[in-house]
Each structure stands twice: as structure tokens, then as C-alpha cells.
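Journal club side-thread
Mid-discussion, someone asked how the predicted structure for our own chain would compare to the paper's figures. Pasting it here so we can look after the session.
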Amino acid sequence: MSNVTELIHDLTTATGQMKQAALTDDWALAEKIQKRRAQLIERIVEYANAATLTEQEANELNVVREQEATIIARAGARHRALGQALAETQTGRCVGKQSRMQKAYGAPGIKRP
């Protein structure tokens, strides 16, 4: 097994662990794993610049990218939820939701002179 193959295997393992951390909302662990992944990716890029990746190695990197897409989606959803929670805290009511009065009587109409 070549060095790049071992690095890709380590990256695949770390990405799987990071995905699991993201699915369980353990963002502190995900951040730690990401630091390790960054080092692995830098080393893989160095090797890839010197030699061509095999088809199997390229396929494994595609799997890593697919897992990263899941992680990014979870992180984006978390970011939006935190932003909405902060906005609700500042305004004292849910953003984007109608008040009980608006639900009961509908949105106010345009007043005509």
C-alpha cells in the first residue's frame, strides 16, 4: 500500500468519524477531527501533485466528498437554527411566524383613505 493510499484511507476514516459527530451535533469533536483532516488533505495534495492517483484512490476521494456534503448540510442547518434562535431572542417572538392575532384575523389589509 502506497503512502497516498494510506493517507486516503485515514482521511476516509476521519471523515466518517466527522460525519457521525455532525449527525449527533457534537460540533466540538467535529472541529477537532477537521483539524486532523486538513493535515491529511494537505499531504494527499502534495502526493497527488507528484504522481497520478489510481482510479480506486479517486473513487475513495469521491466518497469523502459525498460525506463532506452531508456534514456541510448539517452545519448549515445548525447555523441557520442558531441564527433564528438568536433573532427570536432579540425580538421576543418567533421570526417568520404569525402572531396569534394574525392567525385569528388574517393579515391586516391595506387601509384606503
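Post-session note: The helical segments are 3-23, 27-50, 55-91, 100-105.
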